[in-house]
TrEMBL record:
It holds the Pfam family DDE_Tnp_1. NCBIfam families: transpos_ISAs1. This is Transposase YbfD/YdcC. Residues 132-351 form the Transposase IS4-like domain.
Length: 385
């Protein structure tokens, strides 16, 4: 069984936010604005393509405030002012909000039939201050099938590393026992050992800087016949033709170094990607390597790993949508809490609109921008309102 969206609950997401007092970090005195209403208003603004600028998001929320209150059956509410908005957002408990988000819009995981997920990080470029080269960064876990976001965590790129954040994210989301694809940054004993011991499968990039693994295994694969291989059909696009060929080799022919012996490594996967011009001239040839704890005894098992390599780039598609469709990189904020909260709201938009089988996400967002009442109906149907 593949992952699927959590089943709708009787309580709407707005009511869930409203009924969670731990979400609001403000002092109990002088609370003039409903924090659940503000979050919901911003989510609707994101669905209408108003991302990239907090003032634009605020204007949309203010322009449609009365309509939203009418649907939610709220009275005596007033719009938060533009100067007050970032201060209010900074008081939202990000950990509590993320738990509520993925409890409602996340994925149901099963141990019996595991699913493939990709893990990778992304810089929130709008959070980078002028004197720095790094800012806030987001680590996401995305389903290969459907591109639903199953979990997110954040870290400060100027002070922290992605590796421990990614390891903790897998633990917090319970995904150590699933099937995970990761890039070469996460080829460290702690991460892959934990996945292996929890009964999950990993497929991790292998690069030359991991010399203890790279030299013997890559060298061996260059002179031995692959246990299983596959050549995909050429793909035509962007004025060129690309073709991928895959091979996998058992890794039990040579002993592993001590630090890797508990990682469960079984298989080396080699991917060769050749790009040619339409005239047949070879433009580039790229060879990549991956290691996995999956034991391959038949072609079907090899094909699953080959497909997982290809599907890992689903997470890059998700990042592209965040940047192009939702303008994430254009959103500037010097407050980490605000950048992280808006990033989580984008995940709601991606997961909710990604379930829509009638129209693609861009078409839906354009319709919502023109017809706000359609958005209200859609979000009510999805149990957001």
């Amino acid at each position: 069984m593949t992952p699927f969206p959590c089943q709708p609950q009787n309580t709407s997401f707005f009511q869930l936010l409203k009924q969670t007092p731990q979400l609001d970090g403000r002092d109990s005195r002088g609370k003039y604005h409903c924090i659940a209403l503000v979050i919901t208003g911003l989510t609707l603004a994101l669905c209408c393509g108003r991302d990239g600028n907090l003032s634009s998001l605020h204007r949309h929320m203010a322009n449609h405030f009365d309509d939203l209150c009418r649907v939610l059956q709220l009275t005596n509410q007033r719009v938060v002012s533009r100067p007050q908005l970032p201060r209010l957002l900074a008081k939202v408990n990000g950990i509590v909000f993320a738990d509520l988000l993925f409890q409602r819009f996340g994925l149901v995981l099963t141990l019996q039939q595991q699913a493939w997920f990709a893990l990778d990080g992304k810089e929130l470029r709008g959070s980078i201050e002028p004197a720095n080269k790094r800012g806030q960064a987001c680590v996401s876990v995305v389903a290969h099938r459907g591109e639903a976001i199953a979990g997110q965590a954040y870290y400060n790129g100027t002070k922290e590393s992605e590796r421990p954040v990614a390891t903790q994210l897998l633990a917090d989301t319970g995904m150590h026992n699933q099937k995970i694809t990761l890039d070469a940054l996460h080829l460290i004993p702690l991460t892959i050992k934990t996945i292996h011991e929890k009964g999950g499968l990993y497929l991790v990039g292998l690069k030359a800087n991991q010399q203890i693994l790279y030299r013997p295994w890559v060298g061996s694969s260059s002179v031995k016949v692959a246990d299983y291989d596959r050549a995909d059909k050429p793909e035509r696009g962007h004025g060129r033709i690309a073709q991928r060929s895959y091979s996998c080799f058992a890794m039990n022919r040579h002993p592993l170094a001590l630090r890797w012996q508990t990682s469960g490594m079984q298989t080396l996967v080699r991917v060769v990607r050749v790009r040619q011009s339409l005239a047949g001239l070879e433009l580039s040839r790229e060879t990549s390597y991956f290691v996995s704890n999956a034991l391959v005894n038949q072609q079907g098992q090899a094909d699953e790993l080959f497909d997982a390599v290809r599907q890992h780039w689903r997470i890059e598609t998700m990042h592209h949508r965040r940047d192009v469709s939702l303008s994430e990189d254009r959103f500037r904020s010097s407050q980490a809490a605000v950048s992280r909260l808006l990033s989580n709201l984008r995940s709601i938009v991606l997961n909710v609109l990604g379930q829509d089988k009638v129209k693609n996400m861009v078409a839906r967002m354009e319709e919502f921008a023109d017809k706000f009442h359609v958005l209200l109906q859609f979000m009510t149907l999805k149990n957001v309102l």
